[in-house]
Amino acid sequence: ALLRAANALLRQRRYHAALAVIKGFRNGAVYGAKIRAPHALVMTFLFKSGSLREKLKSIAQATYAHSRNLAYFVFTYKGLLAAQARLQGKKIPFHSFLAACIGGWLVFGDNNPINSQIIMYLLSRILFALARLAVEKGYIPQPRQDPFPLLAALVWGTVLWLFEYHRETLQPSLQSSMTYLYEDSDVWHDLADFLIYNKRTDSK
């Protein structure tokens, strides 16, 4: 009977906006954990030193922070959307922008490694989307040739120049990845740390 009552409540349209906020919180938490846990696992065991306990603690903290922030953001965003639509009687495009700006400020405004990675992930996709939108709306002409090869060249040229000469400006995990690829590959002592290991341990 309790389950039937709950299902009946969930099907009522008048509670849809409020329930969507709650489910958005749930989906944000789950998605954040699914995205961050495997990423943190790989990056921690590849590049971080410390005991197994310390590594597992780092993975759990990163996963929790990502999951929590995404859940809070979705909750805030959908709640503000619903509130604006109720106040104005309809949903307009600016509502989405304003709700997301407020949510971004409140939830992702703290400059920490997790938030920084999320913002950089979004920024790269925003730039691509805005370029496509500008072409679609006619603000810039349709390229005669695919501009992606030029973009790839400029991105790689810029990031390696920054790594070589202004490394401190790059995000720490990117520095670690590039150190592994471009500096550690310059150093070896024997066949073991040439092909099998990246670096020779002290015992070797």
UniProtKB/TrEMBL annotation:
Pfam families: Tim17. Coiled coil: none annotated. GO terms for cellular component: peroxisomal membrane. This is PXMP4 protein. It comes from Leptocoma aspasia.
